[in-house]
TrEMBL record:
Signal peptide: none annotated. The lineage of its organism: Bacteria, Pseudomonadati, Pseudomonadota, Alphaproteobacteria, Hyphomicrobiales. One of its GO terms (molecular function) is hydrolase activity. InterPro entries: AB_hydrolase_fold, DUF900_hydrolase. Transmembrane segments: none annotated. SUPFAM superfamilies: alpha/beta-Hydrolases (SSF53474). This is Alpha/beta fold hydrolase. It comes from the Bacteria. The keyword Hydrolase applies. Keywords: Hydrolase. Gene3D superfamilies: alpha/beta hydrolase. It comes from Ancylobacter polymorphus. The keyword Hydrolase applies.
Length: 363
């Protein structure tokens, strides 16, 4: 399978994979794009990270205008062209994925490959475009649960890196917006049929903190204008964000402008977020309790309680990886992607019909 990516990690040509755990040498706002060829090697349907092997990584060439007679070479154009051709010809949706804390470039690609493998629309695999920001990587929860000072500081390091990466994510989204606008002009000019495939956004864990700062930077890049609605669904998975984040425009409150619907999957049993809440002096977490309120929020924001289906096989996941490891959650997401109405999704119990739901364990 081919996983597309953008990353503001430092490019190290003689390394495999060729990206490290620090920023691009030119600064955190600079990113490169490309794709990785990945093979699934595990037989089980819910393979762990090492069930996917990265065979090769291609970094799209780029060159400034000064070296090309005034014409800039943009790697993103080639990647977006390929995604568009495949999406239209094969009628496949596109998922934009922002990973969480404590993740290497390799882990980010492997988990994107899991979404490619499991988050189907009917029998169609999505095309996955992952943005990998320079989280430190490593084993365990990364929240300092074993009391080691170095691990506790890693959390804050990743949080700072996620925030600083917001501008790079915003720049890549702006490039995508420009591309889609130009594509629409071409379709109108040639009287081509509009593309019916969907773009979905998923942010996991601290990726939601990076998403907050991407939204704020994107608003600046478009001069404060209302954000264009380009995503059909935004999935906020185990969000390491404030429980009131969707209430405020300086947090995640801009997201409903960008997506038709926002789905907040949360679990009060999430050990990683419990530690974030109690030992890092953070407010209540969105990924623990869901939205603090729903009255007054956009009507397209939904809360999905995953507490009963958050347990996974590996203890080190801390009930934080259910979005890619629990069959009930994967089945729920697939029904959302297929366009089923919130009250009609099998496996859910309505808590407040039209707004809040709970996923029940499979019998």
């Amino acid at each position: 399978m081919r996983i597309y990516f953008a990353t503001n990690r430092r490019h190290i040509e003689d390394r495999s994979p060729p990206f490290g755990d620090r920023y691009n040498a030119e600064g955190p706002a600079i990113y490169r794009v490309g794709f990785a060829e990945v093979t699934k090697v595990a037989d089980q349907i819910h393979a762990p990270d090492d069930g996917f092997v990265i065979n090769s990584v291609h970094v799209a060439p780029e060159a400034p205008a000064a070296t090309r007679g005034g014409e800039e070479l943009l790697g993103s154009h080639a990647i977006f062209d390929e995604l568009t051709r495949k999406s239209r010809a094969q009628k496949r949706n596109v998922i934009v994925y922002i990973h969480g804390f404590n993740s290497s470039f390799q882990t980010a690609i492997q988990r994107a490959a899991q979404l490619h493998d499991l988050w189907l629309d009917g029998d169609k695999e999505p095309l996955v475009f992952a943005f990998s920001w320079p989280a430190d990587g490593g084993d365990g929860l990364g929240f300092g649960q074993n009391g080691e000072t170095a691990h506790k500081w890693k959390y804050f390091s990743d949080r700072d890196d996620a925030e600083s990466s917001g501008k790079a994510i915003a720049r890549s989204l702006r490039r995508l917006l420009d591309y889609l606008m130009e594509l629409r002009k071409q379709d109108i000019a040639t009287q081509a049929e509009p593309c019916e495939q969907c773009l979905h956004l998923v942010a996991h864990s601290m990726g939601n903190w990076a998403l907050r700062h991407a939204l704020l930077s994107l608003r600046t890049l478009i001069s404060g204008a209302r954000l264009p609605k380009i995503f059909t669904n935004a999935f906020l998975m185990a969000a390491d964000e404030d429980a009131d984040a969707l209430e405020h425009k300086h947090k995640l409150g801009l997201l409903p402008q960008l997506a038709d619907a926002v789905h907040v999957y949360h679990s009060k049993r999430d050990l990683a977020l419990l530690i974030s809440d109690t030992t890092k002096l953070n407010p209540d977490r969105l990924g623990s309790w869901g939205p603090r309120i729903v009255d007054g929020l956009d009507s397209n924001i939904y809360g999905i309680d995953c507490a009963a289906v958050s347990e996974t096989a590996e203890w080190k996941h801390g009930r934080h990886q259910y979005y890619r490891l629990r069959p009930e959650v994967i089945a729920d997401v697939r029904q959302v992607i297929a366009g089923r109405a919130p009250d009609e999704i099998a496996g859910r119990k309505p808590i407040r019909p039209g707004r809040l739901y709970r996923i029940e364990p499979a019998t």
